[in-house]
Amino acid sequence: MAEEQKNRVGKKVVLITLLIILALIITYVIAYFTALKVISKPEENKDSQEKEVIKRGIVYSLGEFLTNLNDKGYIKLQLELEVKDKETAASMENRKAELRNKINAILRSKTKSEVSGKEGMDNLRTTIKVELNRLLGEEVILDVFFTDIIVH
């Protein structure tokens, strides 16, 4: 009987040892695949960032603008356009006077309150983009940047 009891205790010890080893193996496998997944994510983000950089266009400068607003104020700004490719930027050089004239007309039609604040600048940026794309006859301007702004 004592031998049977030792045999049972020995089997329990072996069973518990096997269960602990099995639990450790499962934990190791889960940790391995989790770490592998975490490590591979930055590469995916890197690929998406590279794709975003590729999607960016060419920045074309239209220079500085200083003009009166529709009310008693004035606006001074440096304007840059993001266009889809180098060919578009080259063709815009031939129409620079026409583009500057349109932007001056847009600026002169605005009041100080219309161009003040973030919302006013966002609306002005959108208006310039839409009107210049309409003037050019196609969607070639991707974005409008104001690099210096003074509204007085």
Could you describe the 3D structure shown?
One of its GO terms (cellular component) is plasma membrane. It comes from Koleobacter methoxysyntrophicus. Belongs to the FliL family. Keywords: Cell membrane, Chemotaxis, Flagellar rotation, Membrane, Transmembrane, Transmembrane helix. The protein is α+β, with helices and mostly antiparallel strands. The chain has two domains: 55 residues; 94 residues, Band 7 domain (Tetrahydropterin Synthase, Chain A). Helices cover 66% and strands 21% of the residues. The protein has a three-stranded antiparallel beta sheet with strand order 1-2-3. Helix 3 packs antiparallel against helix 5. It starts with a helix and ends with a strand. The model has no long low-confidence stretch (mean pLDDT 86).
What topology emerges from the helices and strands here?
Layout: H1 2-55, E1 58-68, E2 74-83, H2 86-94, H3 96-109, H4 112-115, H5 117-136, E3 141-151
Antiparallel strand pairs: 1-2, 2-3
Helix pairs in contact: 3-5
Short description:
This protein is α+β, with helices and mostly antiparallel strands and 152 residues long.
Salient structural properties:
single chain; 152 residues; three-stranded antiparallel sheet
Low-confidence stretches: none
Instruction: Outline the biggest β-sheet.
Output: 3 strands, antiparallel
| Assigned CATH architecture of the largest domain | 2-Layer Sandwich
Distance between the termini: 103 Å
Order of strands across the main sheet: 1-2-3
* Tally of helical segments: 5
Q: Structural class of the secondary structure composition?
A: alpha+beta
Output the CATH class name of the largest domain.
Alpha Beta
Fourth CATH level, the homologous superfamily of the largest domain: Band 7 domain
- Global Rg: 33 Å
Mean pLDDT reading? 86
Which percent range fits the helix content? 55-70%
Number of domains: 2
Spatial shape = rod-shaped
Function: Controls the rotational direction of flagella during chemotaxis.
Protein name: Flagellar protein FliL
Membrane topology: Single-pass membrane protein
Subcellular location: Cell membrane
